[in-house]
Request: fold
Amino acid sequence: MEAIKTKIEVTEKERLPVVSEREAVFEARDLAVYYGDQRAIDGVNLDIYQRLITAIIGPSGCGKSTFLRTLNRMNDLVPAARLTGQLRYRGIDLYGPGVDAVEVRRRVGMVFQKPNPFHSSIYDNVAYGLRILGMKKDLDERVEKALRAAALWDEVKDRLKDSALGLSGGQQQRLCIARAIAVEPEVVLFDEPASALDPISTSAIEDLMHELKRDYTLVIVTHNMQQAARVADMTAFFGLDVSPDGNRQGVLVEYDETEKIFTNPSDKRTEGYVTGRFG
Reply:
């Protein structure tokens, strides 16, 4: 297939190791998620690799956020949600008997679409999870470390007792990132983390992601294809399919290195989406 003519530019990234040399953090096999009788996603097979940024793209309603929430069992909180197939985390069945969902969410943190700081001080926002999980030793140092990792320390170090609600939108989102990483997860999930932010704050969040992937595995859902092209190492394109019974469900159309997805995809549906011909 000829390279697609598109205005989306894929930023130059470090050369990735070949697939056989990458270490998988998650392995999805024939994964399907249902809300009651309604199938939201079906037949998903992919591996998410350590210390890379993986973007999930696709049209509205294709199950991007549903898939993201399976990775830290947030769908457990949705009435009538259920899962079939298998999702392994470090080789362990994430939905197997005896797996503690609270511990899953400690290891797999999440940052939501809109900044959601607590109605408390900047310090207490970051310290909240640490206190809940009993990680109170060296609390001041842990809070500082998280704020530094979120590129926020220099902006707030002299007002840690001030309300978090006094921060700008971009600062609030970085505070939420600090709160997520303070409890020392391995993975951080981002669900449209910059959609409510201005371009300058969006750029700051994207720069931060590049810094964070040195220590964390990142998975981001985004409608912004330019953003996916800028930040992601791997990209999964989800599309919509209609089954014989008329059920609309999300399906994984293609998953590959971001450069290939945006310049030489293997599936015509991917080409149509990334060039803006549909979706």
Observations:
- The CA atoms of residues 111 and 177 lie 6 Å apart.
- The chain has a mean pLDDT of 91.
